[in-house]
Amino acid sequence: MIYLNTLAMKLFYMALWMKQRATLGAQIAVLKDQKVLLVRHSYKPGWHLPGGGVDPPEAPEAAAERELYEETGLKLAERPTLLGVIPNVSSATKRDYITAFTACAIAESHSRRSREIAEIAWFPVDDVPADSHPMVGKVLARLRQHES
């Protein structure tokens, strides 16, 4: 009987997982003098591109700009360029997608401290920290393809 209950629970959670909708996030690679801006969160390890979830009915582009400002205090001088939509295979559900953008011109910078962000730093595009999230490498690879 215990086995059947365990099996029933596994089937229930599998069915629930299969009904989950895909999520959409937005990340932005801000470039300056051959360097990319990365953030280190206070609640998880490693370096990440600024970004986060897209809140319906928000456009991914607007979400990238909003997250950039919330996490770093930077505002862009121009609209970011779409690099593509990349599956986030490191997510728990394997159903998350990241819209990746790039931008170069910063309009203004405000001193902004968020409890979410522990550190903000610029790194050479070809020499990001070893503990960077895999999505950083994927977005930078997409950027190189976009430039060639």
UniProtKB/TrEMBL annotation:
<comment type="similarity">
    <text>Belongs to the Nudix hydrolase family.</text>
</comment>
<feature type="domain" description="Nudix hydrolase">
    <location>
        <begin position="18"/>
        <end position="145"/>
    </location>
</feature>
<keyword id="KW-0378">Hydrolase</keyword>
<protein>
    <recommendedName>
        <fullName>Nudix hydrolase domain-containing protein</fullName>
    </recommendedName>
</protein>
<dbReference type="InterPro" id="IPR020084">
    <property type="entry name" value="NUDIX_hydrolase_CS"/>
</dbReference>
<dbReference type="InterPro" id="IPR000086">
    <property type="entry name" value="NUDIX_hydrolase_dom"/>
</dbReference>
<dbReference type="Pfam" id="PF00293">
    <property type="entry name" value="NUDIX"/>
</dbReference>
<dbReference type="GO" id="GO:0016787">
    <property type="term" value="F:hydrolase activity"/>
</dbReference>
<dbReference type="InterPro" id="IPR020476">
    <property type="entry name" value="Nudix_hydrolase"/>
</dbReference>
<dbReference type="InterPro" id="IPR015797">
    <property type="entry name" value="NUDIX_hydrolase-like_dom_sf"/>
</dbReference>
